[in-house]
């Protein structure tokens, strides 16, 4: 099977391009650069307390090991640890790591898995920072959540810091006040996508707000509109816009919030008329999909079914046949009669895996340029071998701990989400 890694490194017999020079570099070259530091529960833009761990250089024995040696060591450590260690792998993770995962899923499915495996003393999260935080919040206090490479963040989650969100809220409160209308709806409800720091989830929980995923965003926005006159949505503008539009909210009733400008770059009148205020974040992988790619797929493959993720821009979602979460995309392909042709607008590792697993269909990525989630890509099998062997030795490295003062409000917002039926 041709893996995404083969495509990126050019070892496959193809002439594909990838989206970044860093991807083709040796992982240790990229990792030798100063790694970002995350405070407990914060995004990369929030100041981290002094002494917070930062990903150091991976010991040479792992960096220099062959794929075969890493495979042997990972399997041996996993066998020794047994059910004391649970390895979670996100759909967008590379196959070289996914093959060791006990559970594979989206961020919400994996957080749920973390919450329902009390026997696991260590949960090794092969995803990105906010996912490991959510697993820490939902798992037991005696369970350690480990992120194999501390530099694996999410560029979208990092686009909203808690300080910026608090400033935004202060401006909105000054404009709207806090009084409910005749129907008992407060002026504004904060909603945050799962792809955000624990501090922002906590912020939402403490202010009557809620978390959503791409699977339940519509149900969560319905919940929010029952309680508020309008919604402020962090940090992904596209998921917020696509979901609200599908619910019938006109685009001219949505304002975009730029945290660097007063009132987010809006007039008071626009904000008073807005039903949805969208933070100006985005996913660098999903915003690459275009209407032109969809037109090219339709021209080349008559009868193609185009399915994109709702993190894509609104014009792409409008031009596609369907849009939905990674779980939706997978289920749509599984349910299709043999011989389907699918152009999929989501991260390449998942698309490539679906193409391999369901050979009865023709499945390809809408973007002809190979573009994996470059932050998740930082988790190389060498890091997985390192954290597992450290556990065998009795050492817990790269533990992600969300501060208590942050986790309680975040848990409230997550529990509200769990109570909402999609
Ligand atoms: S695919 Fe996009 S939203 Fe998902 S983890 Fe990567 S950067 Fe973040």
From TrEMBL:
Location within or outside the cell: Cytoplasm
Pathway: Cofactor biosynthesis; NAD(+) biosynthesis; quinolinate from iminoaspartate: step 1/1
Major localisation: cytoplasm
This protein's record includes keyword Iron-sulfur: yes
A single BP term in Gene Ontology: 'de novo' NAD+ biosynthetic process from L-aspartate
InterPro entries named among the record's database cross-references: NadA, NadA_sf, Quinolinate_synth_A_type3
Residues reported in the UniProt entry to bind [4Fe-4S] cluster: 154, 283, 373
Pfam families assigned: NadA (PF02445)
Note describing how the cofactor binds: Binds 1 [4Fe-4S] cluster per subunit.
PANTHER family: QUINOLINATE SYNTHASE, CHLOROPLASTIC, QUINOLINATE SYNTHETASE A
Protein name (record): Quinolinate synthase
Species in which this protein is naturally found: Klugiella xanthotipulae
